[in-house]
Amino acid sequence: MKLRLRNILRTAVVVPARPVWRGVLARIEQRVASSEQLQENRLQEATRQLKDESRAREADVTHLNQRTQDLQRDIDEFSDQLRRISAQLVAAEQRIADLERTPVVVPGSDTEHHEARTLIHEVRTEHSRARAELAAVAFYEERIARLERAAEAGRRREEQR
Length: 161
Hints:
Elements: H1 2-100, H2 110-160
């Protein structure tokens, strides 16, 4: 009897309530789908923002790497110039020291002294010209070396791309 009553009640309640339940289930599914779409949109927006920020950081890192390479080239150039200037400074200090020495009195006539001074002047002049020419050669060699380094760095950057 209980079983029969149960079947009767079920038939009386379940059958008429099915359309209502279907409507409720449809609305629930619609709300769930809408919520899922909203969450998907939020996730896509967050992903897009993260990708944009990542690209910006990569650009910053690339710029900083390039700037670091430029600064390293400048440091290398300044170091080379300092090395060259140091040698020139030593030579200048030697020349000043030579000029500061007390003159030595050499026996001989005034004409011999005059000829000796003229010869010394000619030697110093020629020495000065040779030093200037060597400095110009060193300058151009350094310039060529810098250009070669820059070309090599440019070639490496092209290969990396």
